[in-house]
Structures
1.
Amino acid sequence: MATVEISDKELKDALKKFFGFEQFRGLQEQVIKSILSGRNTMAIMPTGGGKSLTYQLPALLQPGLAIVVSPLIALMKNQVDAMRGISEEPGIAHVLNSLLNKTETRQVKEDILSGKTKLLYMAPESLNKPENIEFLKQVPISFMAVDEAHCISEWGHDFRPEYRNLRNIINKINPEMPVMALTATATPKTQDDILKNLEIEDANVFKDSFNRPNLFYEVVPKTKDIDKEIVKFIKQRPGQSGIIYALSRKTVEDLAQFLRLNDIKAVPYHAGLNAKTRSKHQDMFLQEEADVVVATIAFGMGIDKPDVRYVIHYDIPKSLESYYQETGRAGRDGEYAHCLAFYSYKDIEKLEKFLFSEKSSIEREIGLALLNEVVAYAETSISRRQFLLDYFGEEFDPEKDPGGDMDDNVRNPKPKIEARDEALKVLRLLTSVKGDFKINDVINILHGVETTRVKSHKKLLGDMWGSGKDKEKEFWHALLRHMLIHKLLKKQIENFGVLKVTDKGREFMANPTSFMITENHKFNESVSRPAVMKQSHGADETLLKMLKDLRRDIARKKNIPTYVIFQDASLEDMAIKYPTSVEEMTRIYGVGEGKARKYGAPFAELIKQYVEENDIVRPEDIVIKSSPTRSAMKVFIIQSTDRKIPLEDIMRAKGLTLEELIKEMEQLVYMGTKLNIDYIIDEMFDEEQQEELFDYFMEAERDKISDALEEFGDEYDEEELRLYRIKFISDMAN
């Protein structure tokens, strides 16, 4: 292996000459010296910790070509541009991939063979091509740097199978070349996987602290008002740069549009946009022509913008590695930055469903393990920073170490309650009766609810049946999730959602110990807005009661459920904004023109009288605009259902999932538009089932699907119930 002898002074002089820095940061100097000495090297450094310099500087100081393996074209392009910016030789760094034309490819190879090029960036797919392997065999190689090395590991958050073939490629090009692995997010398990796969177990391993003390971590409940909450959060930080991460392209597009409509300079970024648009939006963000980028997870890797003041997770990520890396794009200048995540357990269930529908058994097991860590982080009552750093194998003391009070749990400690006896009750239930029980089944048994799935076990369960009625269902949900997190229970991989008692659970039964859970972490739809983001004007409780009384009176006269007229959320919004005309009613959450015309007048009149009698100054400034440009989608859905187009064809035409299409249809009918979906319902349900569902929704006090699922057990799935509810609301209200 080639080595380069260089003194400390010469190394610092080179740092100043090429990059303009006086001092190295963290472990940079030690990592650079290791690779210059010809040793295999692994560097685990936090996002923003200066990883790229640890291979750029040694590449410039050594004879030969350094190959940098990277997963993203955008990341490679930015780094090549940066290297060309510090050198008079434009060929000092190149990307070699299939996007280059023949002339460009020829130029790259000529620069490499002439010795001009010191850094060659390649994706593993390009590196694996036989013609590229044959070409690189002719070239003196100084070392290979594997960036984002967690992609090698199946336990990493962004596993890429192509990465696992890198050792074979290294052996073909030059088995003696030193290898450098770099990552910002490697747990001990992932680290071992990387070292073994690259066959560099002898590597010098350098692990910097993962603590970013300037970042404030916060997790809040995800409610139906999330878009409005985000608008308010951003408007409290005018002119600041921020990134919002969402899992689907549609959410990215819709949210970016909603923010722009509310005078926030926002741009979308996702893989469905063409390269030119992505590049343009990225540049707008870097050049501060846009304050906010709404993006899927691809955005931000290798983007060196130091002053990102907040990172918002609209959807909870699939792993803590993803979360850590994405939040790490905030506050790289060392100044305060806010990391806000919206959490709903329903999002976790959707991710679980995806794992079971798309992945192999091994991938499912890994994916579920990673998801359980995310749930544990969201629902923990201890220091979030302590939880994160422990996950990455680093000790942290919130009372002594930097950043100890920089999270919501430490700033606002949450009360905990003892749940040892209740945990034992669950374990005894699951071990005393043979049955494939899921979370909802256990809760139904404890509450004595006779659903189809559990009623046959009633006699066998004896006094356990209904023995948990003294606790709310939310308590049992929280307890069961804590038991999963703490490995007393597990969800069976091959039988989606079925709970089984683990060895640790059996040990707990034999020797019960204290089992504390957080009392008020109830992350569900009914949770009120988080205190840190509450509106300055809460709902007027006196007016709200009057509105509910009016709604009840109208419902009785028309012989329809109250929720058919206006949802509770709409009444709450009225009690905040005080709309006094039918036109102003259309600005209320969940109220469209049709519903405003049909039901709005008496409510507007009541509010007008109330405002005048109480000398109320109406808060015009908090009206958040809704997007009129969604009308194209609405018109398409209305026309398609009128023409009796199958749901699958509507979804395909607009690139929607079933979940997304149902959500669009729900918004339409709740806002007062009639949808003709009888043809869908007739195909889905027989006459008797339709009568049963009609009777249920007619008599229900509220329209929550969770209530309907509890009522019918596994007789109907969630999508079926939501589609029938769309028909019911459309027929009864519109």
Note: The mean pLDDT is 84.
2.
Amino acid sequence: MIATEGLVLTDELKKYFGFDKFKGQQEEIITSILEGKDTFVIMPTGGGKSLCYQLPALISEGTAIIVSPLIALMKNQVDAIRNYGTDDGIAHFMNSSLTKAEILQVKKDITSGKTKLLYVAPESLTKEENVAFLREIQISFFAIDEAHCISEWGHDFRPEYRRLRPIIEAIGQVPIIALTATATPKVQQDILKNLGMTEASVFKSSFNRSNLYYEVRPKVNVIKEVIRFIKKHEGKSGIVYCLSRKKVEELAESLKVNGIKALPYHAGLDASTRAQTQDDFLMEKIDVIVATIAFGMGIDKPDVRFVIHHDIPKSLEGYYQETGRAGRDGGEGHCLTFYSYDDIQKLEKFMKGKPVAEQEIGKQLLLETVAYAESSACRRKVILHYFGERYEQENCGQCDNCSNPKTKVEVTDEIGLVLETIAEVKEKFKDKHIIHVVTGFISPTVKSYKHNDLEVFGKGLDDEKGESYWNAVIRTAVLEGMITKDIENYGLLKLTPKAKEFLKNPWPVSMTLDHNYEGAESDDDDDIAAGGKNGGGADPELYAMLKDLCRQVARAKNLPPYVVFQETSLEEMAIQYPVNIQELTKINGVGPGKAQKFGKPFVDMIAKYVEENEIERPQDLVVKSIVNKSGLKVHIIQSIDRKLDLVDVAEAKGLKIEDIIAELESIVHSGTRVNINYYIDEVMDEEKQEEIEDYFREAESDSLEAAIDELGEEDYTAEEIRLVRIKFLSENGN
């Protein structure tokens, strides 16, 4: 037992944290650890998990060792604890980010008895010098935070977590408290077994976060949808999760150019940049962080109002933890996810090359995510069922499926057929095999087990009831408690006593059909898809007026119309109705320079047209696309600024000069001005340049083929024409 006689816990809570009463099971958990018992805590994000080990550490003799997986998390926690005491020595972290002098100071504070909490990474515990040091000090208890990292079935498996028990035993016999915000029944067993805590007191809070609203949308025009959503929640804090660093950077840039205060966060950024971004988010200098999944662990920001998943996560546990960062203060929390089956296939490809067992686990976790996204059942019910908790309400009122319920269909007979089939195949197969048997599909497995000879084979064959229909039937039976998935055996379907009861005396069961996301795409479709006056593409009347105006402006400037505005830009204007110069710059192909140079008569015409026709403009859809400044484009622009030979630039990148010219054409068409006169003067005489430029000044379009026909292949190469065209468009249009 830890020496804490005579303590009144509520007094200590008030003294250190300023709260008058405990939340949920906090007091019982703290009492358990103070009594020297191994303690296992499963508490959702926002439930006050950290306080369960912080308070007993502060009031116990000795130092509590907190094992934590992320350096960023440690810093955040240590800063928070130091605010509760007068001496910074009360809490420290020990990891690879510290200098030798800083480590010496940490050890000095621990030895002197100042330090009540020491945060360490699991890797630090494997170092013999640290183990030797910890053997010499008084340890109150070990706290294993983010304990789900122990299980390969967890969403954030860390192999080094599995080595913790022998290391702790080598240091000394003290109580252990393991804590996690997400753990399925299987992960819970793994944690208890691996940490040797089979006799632990287990405290499990409800996983229901009643203030969170769950929504899944098809992944169509996703960048525009994200911007539209954030603009509707202007000034509120939010996190957008992406799977890749590249997408994080792209999306953060798109948000910024559309007037949203956002920054990227991923492991490819240096530590100081990441720390500064976290601080800016906490201090509300920025509203939105676009991040890979590593962001957010230990970030104690209670008023995150939305969490958006640009990409579907790899597991429901990961999804639950990431969405759990919204509304930790009990206020509004909107959890929006964009789903495309293409993303699932991408995630499956990433698994190839991993050990077979790991691939099987990964596939099972992915299938649960697919089931959640495609299901039209209450999303809260699906999530809670996954964590072994039953949600009894029919309509939670806090998810898209319950807010917009679909018509239900009775599936009593279909459920009965599925249950019979599972029984016939001796409960030894997964859902896909069951569906094959039910629908009469002779797969190699069905054939090898001779399941095509079973009486149930093909009984569910119906042209209108495909695989997605039967998937929904199986999910309904799972949610109704008639089927369980044997996780240990990669998802084999098993019948419960309730199923056997149903087979004897069936009762009516109904379900809603799953969502169909076949129109969703994995990659962003950045074309403007909003309707014009007639709800389709461009407003034809306005488009015709803009084309006439473009010709008039071009004549007055002695330029071809395409130099003023490309037809694609005019078309987009007739969709988005920009009525001022700032809005005009959000049209693709219109940079600030072009807008200032040519834009006023166009926006004046559009504003008058909008007023006369009483048009409601789709302003929330006016999204400015970022110029795709890939690394190569940036390199080319910098090389031109330094007046480097373009042939040398191409060779340095292992490219041909044609590739560099193609990139330059893309740069100029996006509205960026470049000056390649120095290079053109080197490779062409002045007379040739003037003749090509005179052609483009008179031409009706910037077509290369038309230019070659007119100028003649014998006298002018395609390369020369393209270079002068770049110069002409850049000087006159941008």
Note: The CA atoms of residues 249 and 516 lie 30 Å apart.
